[in-house]
Protein backbone atom coordinates (compact mmCIF):
# COMPACT_ATOMS: atom_id res chain seq x y z
CA UNK A 1 0.00 0.00 0.00
CA UNK A 2 1.36 3.37 -0.97
CA UNK A 3 1.05 6.02 1.71
CA UNK A 4 0.79 9.57 0.52
CA UNK A 5 2.05 12.38 2.70
CA UNK A 6 0.35 15.75 2.35
CA UNK A 7 2.71 18.63 2.06
CA UNK A 8 1.65 21.94 3.44
CA UNK A 9 2.13 24.84 1.11
CA UNK A 10 4.30 27.71 2.35
CA UNK A 11 2.48 30.58 3.97
CA UNK A 12 2.65 33.84 2.07
CA UNK A 13 2.92 37.08 4.02
CA UNK A 14 1.86 40.26 2.30
CA UNK A 15 3.23 42.71 4.89
CA UNK A 16 6.87 43.78 4.99
CA UNK A 17 8.69 43.89 8.36
CA UNK A 18 8.09 47.61 8.88
CA UNK A 19 4.35 47.21 8.33
CA UNK A 20 4.28 44.11 10.54
CA UNK A 21 5.95 46.06 13.33
CA UNK A 22 3.35 48.81 13.01
CA UNK A 23 0.51 46.23 13.05
CA UNK A 24 1.99 44.89 16.28
CA UNK A 25 1.96 48.39 17.79
CA UNK A 26 -1.61 49.00 16.59
CA UNK A 27 -2.82 45.85 18.30
CA UNK A 28 -1.23 46.93 21.59
CA UNK A 29 -2.62 50.46 21.36
CA UNK A 30 -6.09 49.14 20.51
CA UNK A 31 -6.08 47.29 23.84
CA UNK A 32 -4.71 50.25 25.79
CA UNK A 33 -6.78 53.16 24.48
CA UNK A 34 -10.44 53.98 24.24
CA UNK A 35 -12.20 53.08 21.01
CA UNK A 36 -12.93 56.74 20.26
CA UNK A 37 -9.28 57.78 20.65
CA UNK A 38 -8.05 54.80 18.66
CA UNK A 39 -10.41 55.36 15.73
CA UNK A 40 -9.85 59.14 15.69
CA UNK A 41 -6.10 59.51 16.24
CA UNK A 42 -4.29 56.18 15.95
CA UNK A 43 -6.00 54.21 13.19
CA UNK A 44 -5.32 56.84 10.47
CA UNK A 45 -1.55 56.73 11.14
CA UNK A 46 0.67 54.82 8.72
CA UNK A 47 4.37 53.91 8.61
CA UNK A 48 6.51 55.89 6.17
CA UNK A 49 10.08 54.77 6.83
CA UNK A 50 12.49 53.25 9.32
CA UNK A 51 15.98 54.60 8.75
CA UNK A 52 19.01 55.51 10.87
CA UNK A 53 17.24 54.45 14.05
CA UNK A 54 14.18 56.64 13.39
CA UNK A 55 10.72 55.21 12.72
CA UNK A 56 8.60 57.74 10.83
CA UNK A 57 4.80 57.76 10.96
CA UNK A 58 2.57 59.79 8.66
CA UNK A 59 -0.59 61.67 9.59
CA UNK A 60 -2.77 64.19 7.81
CA UNK A 61 -2.74 67.33 9.97
CA UNK A 62 -0.59 69.02 12.57
CA UNK A 63 -3.21 68.67 15.31
CA UNK A 64 -3.17 64.89 14.98
CA UNK A 65 0.65 64.93 14.91
CA UNK A 66 0.82 66.95 18.14
CA UNK A 67 -1.81 64.76 19.83
CA UNK A 68 0.06 61.55 19.01
CA UNK A 69 3.46 62.94 19.99
CA UNK A 70 2.23 64.37 23.32
CA UNK A 71 -0.12 61.56 24.36
CA UNK A 72 1.41 58.41 22.89
CA UNK A 73 4.92 59.25 21.76
CA UNK A 74 6.63 57.41 24.61
CA UNK A 75 4.36 54.35 24.36
CA UNK A 76 4.74 54.02 20.58
CA UNK A 77 8.52 54.42 20.84
CA UNK A 78 8.70 51.71 23.52
CA UNK A 79 6.55 49.29 21.53
CA UNK A 80 8.47 49.84 18.29
CA UNK A 81 11.80 49.39 20.07
CA UNK A 82 10.51 46.13 21.51
CA UNK A 83 9.29 44.91 18.12
CA UNK A 84 12.62 45.67 16.46
CA UNK A 85 14.68 44.68 19.53
CA UNK A 86 16.72 47.85 19.23
CA UNK A 87 16.37 51.41 20.46
CA UNK A 88 14.41 53.58 18.04
CA UNK A 89 13.28 57.19 17.95
CA UNK A 90 9.83 58.21 16.72
CA UNK A 91 9.04 60.94 14.21
CA UNK A 92 5.50 61.93 13.21
CA UNK A 93 5.14 63.94 10.02
CA UNK A 94 2.24 65.69 8.31
CA UNK A 95 1.66 64.14 4.90
CA UNK A 96 0.54 67.32 3.12
CA UNK A 97 3.84 69.06 3.74
CA UNK A 98 5.92 65.91 3.74
CA UNK A 99 4.95 65.12 0.14
CA UNK A 100 7.12 67.98 -1.09
CA UNK A 101 10.28 66.45 0.32
CA UNK A 102 12.43 64.67 -2.30
CA UNK A 103 12.38 60.90 -2.40
CA UNK A 104 9.31 60.28 -0.26
CA UNK A 105 6.40 60.92 -2.62
CA UNK A 106 5.78 57.22 -3.23
CA UNK A 107 6.01 56.36 0.42
CA UNK A 108 3.47 58.93 1.50
CA UNK A 109 1.09 58.37 -1.39
CA UNK A 110 1.05 54.57 -1.06
CA UNK A 111 2.26 53.52 2.41
CA UNK A 112 1.15 49.92 1.84
CA UNK A 113 3.82 49.54 -0.85
CA UNK A 114 6.76 50.89 1.16
CA UNK A 115 9.58 48.40 1.73
CA UNK A 116 11.42 48.28 5.04
CA UNK A 117 14.67 50.24 4.99
CA UNK A 118 17.68 48.21 6.24
CA UNK A 119 18.86 48.81 9.80
CA UNK A 120 21.62 51.39 10.31
CA UNK A 121 24.29 48.71 10.79
CA UNK A 122 23.48 47.04 7.44
CA UNK A 123 25.97 47.53 4.57
CA UNK A 124 25.05 49.92 1.79
CA UNK A 125 24.80 47.10 -0.72
CA UNK A 126 23.64 43.60 0.15
CA UNK A 127 23.85 40.39 -1.77
CA UNK A 128 20.58 38.47 -2.33
CA UNK A 129 21.61 35.85 0.24
CA UNK A 130 22.27 38.56 2.84
CA UNK A 131 18.90 40.20 2.16
CA UNK A 132 17.19 36.80 2.48
CA UNK A 133 18.93 36.21 5.82
CA UNK A 134 17.76 39.59 7.11
CA UNK A 135 14.19 38.96 5.93
CA UNK A 136 14.17 35.72 7.94
CA UNK A 137 15.40 37.40 11.11
CA UNK A 138 13.90 36.33 14.49
CA UNK A 139 11.99 39.60 14.91
CA UNK A 140 10.17 39.01 11.61
CA UNK A 141 9.39 35.43 12.61
CA UNK A 142 7.93 36.64 15.91
CA UNK A 143 5.74 39.21 14.19
CA UNK A 144 4.61 36.77 11.52
CA UNK A 145 3.72 34.21 14.17
CA UNK A 146 1.32 36.71 15.71
CA UNK A 147 -0.06 38.32 12.58
CA UNK A 148 0.79 36.05 9.67
CA UNK A 149 -2.37 33.96 9.63
CA UNK A 150 -6.11 34.49 9.60
CA UNK A 151 -6.40 32.34 12.72
CA UNK A 152 -4.03 34.57 14.70
CA UNK A 153 -5.82 37.67 13.47
CA UNK A 154 -9.07 36.30 14.95
CA UNK A 155 -7.59 35.10 18.23
CA UNK A 156 -5.36 38.18 18.74
CA UNK A 157 -2.89 36.39 21.03
CA UNK A 158 -1.22 39.67 21.98
CA UNK A 159 -4.38 40.84 23.78
CA UNK A 160 -4.33 39.36 27.26
CA UNK A 161 -5.86 40.00 30.66
CA UNK A 162 -3.85 39.73 33.87
CA UNK A 163 -5.27 36.99 36.13
CA UNK A 164 -3.97 35.40 39.32
CA UNK A 165 -4.37 31.92 40.75
CA UNK A 166 -5.62 33.65 43.89
CA UNK A 167 -8.69 34.87 42.05
CA UNK A 168 -9.67 31.34 41.11
CA UNK A 169 -8.60 29.58 44.31
CA UNK A 170 -9.94 32.06 46.87
CA UNK A 171 -12.54 34.31 45.20
CA UNK A 172 -14.30 31.85 42.90
CA UNK A 173 -15.84 29.92 45.82
CA UNK A 174 -17.11 33.23 47.26
CA UNK A 175 -18.35 34.88 44.05
CA UNK A 176 -19.58 31.79 42.24
CA UNK A 177 -19.08 31.11 38.55
CA UNK A 178 -21.59 33.73 37.42
CA UNK A 179 -20.10 36.36 39.70
CA UNK A 180 -16.59 35.67 38.45
CA UNK A 181 -17.81 35.75 34.85
CA UNK A 182 -19.32 39.22 35.34
CA UNK A 183 -16.16 40.51 37.04
CA UNK A 184 -13.96 39.21 34.20
CA UNK A 185 -16.35 40.54 31.57
CA UNK A 186 -16.16 44.00 33.16
CA UNK A 187 -12.37 43.83 33.37
CA UNK A 188 -12.14 42.85 29.70
CA UNK A 189 -13.53 46.29 28.79
CA UNK A 190 -10.88 48.07 30.89
CA UNK A 191 -7.10 48.35 30.86
CA UNK A 192 -4.46 47.77 33.53
CA UNK A 193 -0.69 47.52 33.18
CA UNK A 194 0.70 45.86 36.35
CA UNK A 195 4.22 47.01 35.45
CA UNK A 196 3.49 50.74 35.84
CA UNK A 197 -0.02 50.56 37.35
CA UNK A 198 -1.52 52.56 34.49
CA UNK A 199 -5.25 51.96 34.73
CA UNK A 200 -8.38 52.91 32.80
CA UNK A 201 -11.18 51.25 34.69
CA UNK A 202 -14.24 53.48 34.37
CA UNK A 203 -16.47 52.92 31.35
CA UNK A 204 -20.06 53.22 30.19
CA UNK A 205 -22.19 50.24 29.24
CA UNK A 206 -25.59 48.75 30.03
CA UNK A 207 -26.85 45.63 31.76
CA UNK A 208 -27.60 43.84 28.49
CA UNK A 209 -24.14 44.41 27.04
CA UNK A 210 -22.44 43.27 30.25
CA UNK A 211 -24.69 40.20 30.38
CA UNK A 212 -23.78 39.32 26.79
CA UNK A 213 -20.06 39.63 27.52
CA UNK A 214 -20.39 37.36 30.58
CA UNK A 215 -22.79 34.92 28.83
CA UNK A 216 -25.34 35.24 31.63
CA UNK A 217 -28.80 36.75 31.93
CA UNK A 218 -29.51 40.40 32.72
CA UNK A 219 -31.15 39.26 35.95
CA UNK A 220 -27.92 37.49 36.92
CA UNK A 221 -25.89 40.64 36.22
CA UNK A 222 -28.19 42.65 38.48
CA UNK A 223 -27.87 40.06 41.24
CA UNK A 224 -24.07 40.01 40.92
CA UNK A 225 -23.77 43.81 41.01
CA UNK A 226 -25.97 43.84 44.13
CA UNK A 227 -23.69 41.36 45.94
CA UNK A 228 -21.96 42.98 48.91
CA UNK A 229 -18.63 41.32 48.11
CA UNK A 230 -18.76 42.48 44.49
CA UNK A 231 -19.79 46.03 45.46
CA UNK A 232 -17.12 46.25 48.13
CA UNK A 233 -14.17 44.83 46.27
CA UNK A 234 -14.76 44.49 42.52
CA UNK A 235 -17.42 46.58 40.74
CA UNK A 236 -19.32 49.77 41.51
CA UNK A 237 -21.87 51.31 39.20
CA UNK A 238 -24.16 54.30 38.86
CA UNK A 239 -27.19 54.56 36.61
CA UNK A 240 -27.19 57.13 33.82
CA UNK A 241 -30.56 58.68 33.09
CA UNK A 242 -31.78 61.35 30.69
CA UNK A 243 -34.96 63.34 30.21
CA UNK A 244 -37.27 62.43 27.32
CA UNK A 245 -40.73 63.73 26.30
CA UNK A 246 -42.12 60.74 28.17
CA UNK A 247 -40.16 61.43 31.33
CA UNK A 248 -36.84 60.25 32.77
CA UNK A 249 -35.43 57.15 31.08
CA UNK A 250 -32.46 54.95 31.87
CA UNK A 251 -29.52 55.50 29.50
CA UNK A 252 -27.28 52.72 30.84
CA UNK A 253 -24.75 52.36 33.62
CA UNK A 254 -21.23 53.61 34.33
CA UNK A 255 -18.91 51.08 35.94
CA UNK A 256 -15.83 51.44 38.12
CA UNK A 257 -13.93 48.15 37.99
CA UNK A 258 -11.18 47.07 40.35
CA UNK A 259 -8.43 45.49 38.23
CA UNK A 260 -6.21 43.95 40.92
CA UNK A 261 -7.33 41.14 43.21
CA UNK A 262 -8.09 42.10 46.82
CA UNK A 263 -7.57 39.80 49.77
CA UNK A 264 -10.64 37.88 50.83
CA UNK A 265 -12.18 38.90 54.19
CA UNK A 266 -10.86 35.65 55.68
CA UNK A 267 -7.27 36.35 54.60
CA UNK A 268 -7.53 39.95 55.79
CA UNK A 269 -8.41 38.73 59.27
CA UNK A 270 -5.87 35.90 59.27
CA UNK A 271 -2.95 38.11 58.20
CA UNK A 272 -4.13 41.41 59.69
CA UNK A 273 -3.95 43.09 56.28
CA UNK A 274 -6.88 45.38 55.59
CA UNK A 275 -8.08 46.18 52.10
CA UNK A 276 -9.11 49.64 50.96
CA UNK A 277 -12.87 49.32 50.64
CA UNK A 278 -13.15 52.79 49.08
CA UNK A 279 -10.97 52.14 46.03
CA UNK A 280 -13.49 53.71 43.61
CA UNK A 281 -13.99 57.41 42.68
CA UNK A 282 -16.43 59.50 44.80
CA UNK A 283 -19.04 59.58 42.02
CA UNK A 284 -19.73 55.90 42.74
CA UNK A 285 -20.64 56.50 46.39
CA UNK A 286 -24.27 56.92 45.39
CA UNK A 287 -24.55 53.48 43.83
CA UNK A 288 -28.12 52.57 42.94
CA UNK A 289 -30.03 49.78 41.28
CA UNK A 290 -31.12 50.10 37.67
CA UNK A 291 -34.84 49.98 37.25
Overall description:
The chain is of the alpha+beta class and 291 residues long. Helix content is 46%, strand content 17%. It has 13 helices and eight strands. The protein has helices at 17-32, 35-42, 62-84, 95-98, 105-109, 128-135, 138-147, 150-155, 165-187, 207-214, 218-226, 228-233, 265-271, and strands spanning 46-51, 54-59, 89-94, 191-193, 198-200, 202-205, 235-244, 247-257. The chain has a three-stranded mixed sheet with strand order 1-2-3. The chain has a three-stranded antiparallel sheet with strand order 6-8-7. The chain has a two-stranded antiparallel ribbon with strand order 4-5. Helix 3 links the parallel strand 2 and strand 3 (89-94). The longest helix is centred in the first third of the chain and has 23 residues, at 62-84. It is globular and about 55 Å long. 23% of the residues are buried. Mean pLDDT is 78; it is low at 1-13 and 97-125.
Output mean pLDDT: 78
Helix percentage range: 40-55%
Secondary-structure element string: HHEEHEHHHHHHEEEHHHEEH
Structural class: alpha+beta
Rg for CA atoms:
25 Å
**Count of runs of 4 or more consecutive helical residues:** 13
* Poorly predicted spans: 1-13, 97-125
Please give the largest β-sheet.
3 strands, mixed
Query: What amount of the residues lies in strands?
Result: 15-25%
Strand neighbour order, sheet with most strands: 1-2-3
Bulk shape: globular
- Taking the alpha carbons of the first and last residues, their distance comes to 71 Å
Number of strands: 8
Topology (SSEs and partners):
Elements lengths: L16 H16 L2 H8 L3 E6 L2 E6 L2 H23 L4 E6 H4 L6 H5 L18 H8 L2 H10 L2 H6 L9 H23 L3 E3 L4 E3 L1 E4 L1 H8 L3 H9 L1 H6 L1 E10 L2 E11 L7 H7 L20
Parallel strand pairs: 2-3
Antiparallel strand pairs: 1-2, 4-5, 6-8, 7-8
Helix pairs in contact: 1-3, 1-7, 9-10, 9-11, 10-11
Amino acid sequence: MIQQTAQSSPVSYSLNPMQQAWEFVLAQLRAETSRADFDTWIKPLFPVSCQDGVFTLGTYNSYARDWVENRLGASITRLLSGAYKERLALKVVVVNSFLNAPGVEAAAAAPAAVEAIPAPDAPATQKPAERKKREDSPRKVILERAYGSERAALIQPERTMYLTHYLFLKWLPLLGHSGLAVVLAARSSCYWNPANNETRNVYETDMAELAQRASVSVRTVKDVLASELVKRYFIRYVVRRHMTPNGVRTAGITLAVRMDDPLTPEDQAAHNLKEDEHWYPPMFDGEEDEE
